[in-house]
Design goal:
7 strands, binds FE2/S2 (inorganic) cluster, alpha+beta, transport, 239 residues, Ubiquitin-like (UB roll), Helix Hairpins
């Protein structure tokens, strides 16, 4: 067992920035594709969420026990209490089963503010060293039959969108590595799709690992395809 600080390899007096940095490092180290395991990956995620939610570190072990395979499942397929549901936002199910596609994401706002370019070969390496917050740069796991936008929202992120049906470009992301498949034809022309632009609201990963830049809706070729957010009651778009 151990404390969430132990799981992240930190001293118990580590501050929030240190927790974020340690999480970003550990989640890569324990990824199944890098010699880790699904269980270890989820445990690191739970430790990070436990600390960033401000929960008592001493209560982590009890939460770990309840995260085992005997955790009750509700009728809608979700498990545990509301707090546990939040804390397990990155889970793709209990146990040591297969991990869903892993997406490393980066906010285009950071690309712009640092003077980087989406086409930079070392874009994500630069993001790694820039000490960005997890809402700007990090890793998420997409569950089966889940779109990228739905996965991001499950993690609590507010990525842009409007129609949620492939009819605008508000939710566009640039796929730098891997691919997202879109089940219906969209407003994106061949030039945009050839440049790796995909719609996160209908896009599902078809590769195990992806790197994407989100929040690109103001890029040339996309801005004119955007819909005003006020057309959609629950839309989130940066107008
Ligand atoms: S939100 Fe309109 S296409 Fe995704």
């Amino acid at each position: 067992m151990g404390s969430p600080y132990d799981v992240l390899g930190l001293d118990a007096d580590a501050d929030e920035d240190a927790v974020v940095r340690a999480y970003r490092k550990r989640v890569k180290e324990v990824h199944p594709d890098h010699g880790g395991s699904v269980a270890a990956f989820k445990r690191v995620r739970r430790a990070y969420e436990h600390l960033t939610a401000g929960r008592d570190p001493a209560a982590f072990e009890a939460g770990e026990a309840s995260a085992g395979s005997d955790r009750p499942e509700s009728t809608d397929g979700r498990t545990g209490s509301a707090e546990e549901e939040v804390s397990s936002a990155g889970d793709t199910g209990d146990g040591d089963g297969e991990l869903g596609p892993t997406v490393e994401y980066l906010d285009y706002a950071a690309v712009e503010s640092y003077g980087w370019n989406i086409t930079d070969d070392d874009l994500f390496e630069k993001a790694e060293t820039a000490d960005l917050g997890v809402d700007t740069h990090g890793i998420l796991v997409v569950e089966p039959r889940e779109t990228l936008l739905e996965a991001a929202e499950r993690y609590g992120f507010s990525w842009p969108y409007a129609c949620r049906g492939g009819a605008c470009a508000n939710c566009a992301v640039a796929v730098v590595e891997g691919d997202l498949e879109m089940p219906v034809s969209t407003v994106l022309d061949d030039d945009l799709t050839d440049r790796g632009v995909r719609l996160s609201c209908i896009g599902e990963p078809v590769t195990d690992d992806l790197k994407i830049v989100f929040n690109i809706e103001h890029l040339p070729g996309l801005a004119e395809l955007r819909l005003p957010a006020e057309q959609f009651g629950s839309a989130r778009a940066d107008d």
